[in-house]
Structures are given as structure tokens and as C-alpha cells.
Design brief:
It is a single chain. By secondary structure, the chain is α/β, with parallel strands linked by helices. Helix content is 44%, strand content 21%. The chain has a single domain, classed as HUPs (Rossmann fold, 3-Layer(aba) Sandwich), CATH 3.40.50. α2 links the parallel β2 and β3. The longest helix is centred in the middle third of the chain and has 26 residues. The chain is globular and about 45 Å long. The two termini are 35 Å apart. The relative contact order is 0.22. The model has no long low-confidence stretch (mean pLDDT 79).
């Protein structure tokens, strides 16, 4: 049985792309649902004038925030699986989405990755890059990119 990695950012567009990908490949696979959670933004840098002291938070608070983000992401993935109508293992990783998707695919021996493409304009691709482009060029397996149906 093939292992399929469904990579999502949790958006409605990503959900539609995953649904379409599952329709194309069929439901008789082992599914891994992945979302990438960026590191928590906790203002441990200087707040206020340049000469003010940095805001230092308790590491336990930072860990609690990270755990809450992780739990929320797992719940979101469970909802995605239910909406798509599949059973799958929820994976939540911290890091940049493109490299994280490729790393998980490598570690888990994934046979194919399904990912959506939002169809951002050229300027946005130049400035922030494209997750789907990164995955296409660096994945250890075939990649099925589902184009955003709302874009011409």
C-alpha cells in the first residue's frame, strides 16, 4: 500500500486541493496528514525604546504556548481528515514548510506528496518563495501539485 503525504497549511484552498488529490489517487492508501507550525512568536526581544530591557518569559510559558499550538494543529488535521473522508496519521512539525515537508517525506519513506498551489503572483513568489516549488525541486519522491481552482 502506497504512503501518501498530504501537506496542508490549514486553509480552505489547501483543503480543496487535498480533496482533489485524494480523488485522483484514490482512497486505498496509507495517508499521512502534515502541517507545519512555525516556531512560536514570543516577544523575548526588546520591547519599547532601544535602551529598554528585553522581555524575558518563563520557559515553561513558552513550552505551554508551543504545546497549545501543536494540539490545535492536530485537532485541525483531524478535522481535515474527516472532511476529506479518509483516515490518516496526523503529523505536526515545527519549521519552514517546504524543507519540513521534504524532510518528513524522506524520514517516512513516502511514495507521493500531494500539495496545493495557491497561484500567487510573480512578485509574491520572488519575495516569499513558493512552498510547492520548493517541494517539487527537493522532494525525495513524486509530487502531485493541485492548482488553485479559483485562479485562471
Amino acid at each position: 500500500m502506497a504512503t501518501v503525504l498530504l501537506a496542508t497549511d490549514g486553509s480552505d484552498r489547501a483543503l480543496a486541493a487535498l480533496q482533489r488529490g485524494v480523488e485522483i489517487l484514490g482512497r486505498e492508501h496509507t495517508f499521512l496528514l502534515l502541517t507545519s507550525v512555525p516556531p512560536s512568536f514570543i516577544p523575548s526581544a526588546t520591547v519599547g525604546p532601544m535602551d529598554s530591557h528585553p522581555l524575558v518569559l518563563d520557559p515553561a510559558v513558552e513550552e505551554e504556548v508551543a504545546r497549545a499550538q501543536h494540539d490545535e494543529a492536530v485537532a485541525d488535521l483531524s478535522s481535515v481528515a474527516s472532511t476529506i473522508g479518509i483516515e490518516g496519521e496526523a503529523l505536526v512539525e515545527v519549521g519552514e514548510p517546504g524543507p519540513t515537508i521534504c524532510s518528513v517525506a524522506e524520514r517516512r519513506g513516502v511514495d507521493v506528496i500531494i500539495i496545493g498551489s495557491h497561484g500567487h503572483g510573480w512578485l509574491q513568489r520572488v519575495l516569499i518563495g513558493s512552498v510547492s516549488k520548493h517541494v517539487l525541486h527537493h522532494a525525495p519522491c513524486p509530487v502531485l501539485v493541485i492548482r488553485d481552482q479559483d485562479r485562471p
